User: Fold this.
Amino acid sequence: MTHPLFEKHRSTLDGALAAIATRGYWSAYPEMPSPKLYGETAPEDGRRAFEAHKGQHFELGQPGQTGWHGGEISPYGVELGTSYPVCTPDALIEAAQTAMTEWQAVGAQGRTGICLEILDRLNKQSFEIAHAVMQTTGQGWMMAFQAGAPHAQDRGLEALAYAWREQSFVPAEAHWEKPQGKNPPLVMKKHFEIVGRGVALVIGCGTFPTWNTYPGLFAALATGNGVIVKPHSNAILPAAITVRTIRAVLAENGLDPDLVSLCVTDKRATTQALATHPAIKSVDFTGSNVFGQWLIDNCRQAQVYAELAGVNNIVIDSTDAYKATLGNLAFTLSLYSGQMCTTSQAIFVPAGGIDTDEGHKSYDEVCADLARAVERFLSKPEVAHAVLGAIQSNDTLERIALADSGELGQVVLASKTLENPDFPAARVRTPVLLACDAADERLYMEERFGPISFIVKTADTAAAIALSERVVATHGALTVGVYSTRQEVLEAMTKATWRSKVALSINLSGGVFVNQSAAFSDYHGTGGNPAANAAYADSAFVANRFRVVQRRYHA
Amino acid sequence: MTHPLFEKHRSTLDGALAAIATRGYWSAYPEMPSPKLYGETAPEDGRRAFEAHKGQHFELGQPGQTGWHGGEISPYGVELGTSYPVCTPDALIEAAQTAMTEWQAVGAQGRTGICLEILDRLNKQSFEIAHAVMQTTGQGWMMAFQAGAPHAQDRGLEALAYAWREQSFVPAEAHWEKPQGKNPPLVMKKHFEIVGRGVALVIGCGTFPTWNTYPGLFAALATGNGVIVKPHSNAILPAAITVRTIRAVLAENGLDPDLVSLCVTDKRATTQALATHPAIKSVDFTGSNVFGQWLIDNCRQAQVYAELAGVNNIVIDSTDAYKATLGNLAFTLSLYSGQMCTTSQAIFVPAGGIDTDEGHKSYDEVCADLARAVERFLSKPEVAHAVLGAIQSNDTLERIALADSGELGQVVLASKTLENPDFPAARVRTPVLLACDAADERLYMEERFGPISFIVKTADTAAAIALSERVVATHGALTVGVYSTRQEVLEAMTKATWRSKVALSINLSGGVFVNQSAAFSDYHGTGGNPAANAAYADSAFVANRFRVVQRRYHA
Assistant:
């Protein structure tokens, strides 16, 4: 009695299960926005679907609706004007709780099949979602397509694969027969029911409204929970499209669509009341330390999976590919104007400079060469706009201005304002590079979100490694990097990352970047330093989202 | 390059892995204290080993020792007089942290092999440990042997099997090759290192010093963590023997024994400072709500796995085996004088009575018949002493006296003080049964630990089921039971337990009891109601005790 949707998507699930076991390259959803892969009319259909949302009420048919709310501001200056249903949280919670009973009865296999169908349907909407992501976050088109659609879907599928694997270990029933010597054995029949913990709240962020939302969403949903998605106030549309599709697939399968809903509010207090509601049993969050820590401190009734701020950093000791290293770093610092949670903020360089294949380079030369590399990389406007995108928030614009003023350190490369010919009102800024001394900890040892990086002068390589470890252990990081031609340096850095628990990229000089994290292969976050208390994705990310309730009787 | 101890114990591990997958009956360690199974001299050797601890310093060779502390009082009135090393917590923490580096390097397979060897060695000490458990907890001999030794070892092995399964999913390395169309593929080599979260603290309880300690101990140890065992102040010896054996096996394998240590203190403040120390990353606890909740509220730096108090309960609707049902309940209420965290405290009986194979029985008749069944079961002194054991704490003695006074409800069966001929100073009490109305919630709706049970009169069966659900949801429970000949009642109770998340035993009338939980098959606790935030054992119990740190580079 395999669920038909489980059967339909079995090869996708099997691929994902094999991928999380081997952690080699694998992807279920094509990352190229190509008509050959997505259908000849897909790009235009997706564009039109996106355009059709502009200025409209986004109908979801949710319970408890009291009005409409919108107000997203596009970093590209595009007028969006979509408004979304505002529903009372209590109505959403109650409806989700009611819907959970039949969702539990569907069983792990059925839930997995339906989640696979949802992902497949979201994949078919990739162009529409990509436009929504681009226009709400300021990502460039290619990133918006890849990170917003197929890569986000891969991350959702990854979480789903973990959830299925853990649930599949729980037998539905057992025959328990204990020998009693010469007496008849004790025989019991046992049943094991997987039950969700309760309604899940998934709080999205403003920069990656799908990529950072799908892991928690699918982990919670697959394990039997109703889910309320609370998007960032400026990135609602990608979440709304996602929720509508989920609700449609649920309804098509005879299930109550209110299992999954969208919660839109402009009041922090509403989100706080929702997050601390006794019925909310898990909270997934990506965002600031302030609100994230508030959630951890106050949502005592729930499991909180939080990805917070950090100070990603890189140690440069030496390289045998100086030019390629600078090019790799220039791309990392420029991509989406440094608005990735994985972008490097602090680059530690020994005061005595570094050995390279182009001779010894002083600290000042490294600063100047990296600045030139960024300038060169962004010298063609079409490359610059595709890579940089636009600045997501006014706060980031202000931080850039502050950095440019020299108050945060010596300006090695000033930020420039660019004009995007396609979007004249777009807020485009190039990265700012600052130089400072390791002792100036107040400058670089807090997250300065956006295209702001510090080239930090350290006493030597050993000091740089020790500093990197301390930064990660105390302030957190999702990524660190090291460049060295010396094995002992790589080993010391490796051991430092084991202690501080952060992912390490070594000598990246080609087409892979420290700020990129590949689903099924790279763990995004370790869950072991202050930047995140969970990883995308592993068993720990799913195993505590459901519980097993047994019953037994004499057989 | 399989670790020799992994190879040596592979069949035990394979058996455990198969058992957690099928949840049928399985056990690695014989539960009968038989010389045929444990060796002809094992009983006497074990007795002598136990006797040799009396009045002695229990040497462990731990760092930071400042003195000795003992003072365990045997519920059997036996003079123990063993004292244990008092060491500064900071010294134990620092030594464990240091030892963790090489423990990490041993790898998951090596750690699993060494833990299997430890369990095997503990099994060989079963008689010694059983005497230690009996004399510190007041358990009867058979229970002390079974629950204190082989069943505790099974629970440790079960946690170890989960820990190994989860760790075995993490590949040591991966080859990642991403196609780039007509260009050469991107190729990365990746390494994945399993690292423990940090030093674990395992806080034992006074009634089951090994059974409730081994799951957390082996889960934490196997996943790469150092462990500090903080036993209950009156049940130190079983933990001390365990820790000494672990340290010996570590040393034999060339490892730093300070990875695992015993922390003895008579100051609550010392335990509190230890539990909230920044280096302590997990806390396993079994015990009172007051201290457990304090740990959950204050140990924000650690994962807390807590088994707390609850109000286990049973709904009696009807039965076709009245006599056997009463006999089964009489055993449950008597076993270890009701001092099990799984003993039923509230028995819900409809005001209109119940239908049985011996005709309709009024509420009052059920009360009287259950009282008689307990009396009859305990009428033979040798049975009574073997089953009851002795009362572990003065607090429990006082609670029994309070119940006997009639202040907690109408006394249906008064507790009796028995004289144990083998241990004249033993504190032996028979169970007290009270009758009260469902409305008298203050009487039965908090845990009254010990041989104190309430037969609660409910309006009808539906009210009993609703009350059971509410008690579990609000006060927690590890076990509930139901007796009914009607399918709709069983279904309603089953659904109630899915909502309140508690294990259900149905119509137990034979040789299995609601307060018994079999390793590998029965989940002990669901982790979904206030009685426990984790289950023994499941993936969630182990998966968050380690983290994975990756590194990657161009291949």
User: Anything to note?
Assistant: Chain A touches chain B through 63 residues (CB under 8 Å). Residues 89-124 of chain A form the longest helix (36 residues). The mean pLDDT of chain A is 97.
